[in-house]
Amino acid sequence: MFLENTVNPKEQFGWIEVICGSMFSGKTEELIRRLKRAQFAKQKVEIFKPQVDKRYHDKMVVSHDSNEISSTPVPTAAAIRVLAEKCDVVGIDEAQFFDDEIVAVCNELANKGIRVLVAGLDMDFKGNPFGPMPALMATAEYVTKVHAICTRSGNLANYSFRKATSDDLVLLGETDAYEPLSRGAYYKAMLREKVKEMNVNAEEVKKINKGNNNA
Question: CATH number of the domain at 15-214, please?
């Protein structure tokens, strides 16, 4: 369970909260919930997202359930350092798409007394730790891992299986491109992909050999 930190006026340091999980797990939903609570408490809040994320809106952070909150798109993590001055709370969505400097930026903000809320994918579509997220999780005071529901087994899902045929690490998409899967379902799906690839390669070899024999 996540318990919001109480503010000690004698302690001039903030902290970092990381919300992580797979696609469709409610990361952004939880980020927006915490940020709106801070706004309701009349705290000065600034929200940032990577400039590349334009799936729902150019400037709004929007959850899959259509909840939204105004944000500032930035090209690099360094821009957050400049724009987050004199804030009580800073929110950062899709942190996995930022460069590695995001880790230093978040820690600098926390050391200045700012509460830093970060949401992002903890693993890429290959099941590997995603970008700066592992380092952010390691340095954060609080880490909340949320889960989706596996579309194939109904179990808790923590993997983002890519249905689209692309090997690009960064591929923005929704249910047309990604599917949340449990460990078992993800393992079976990846195994089928490998078998499919092996069959394709075998067919290519046959065609090459047949061409050589006819030459």
Answer: 3.40.50.300
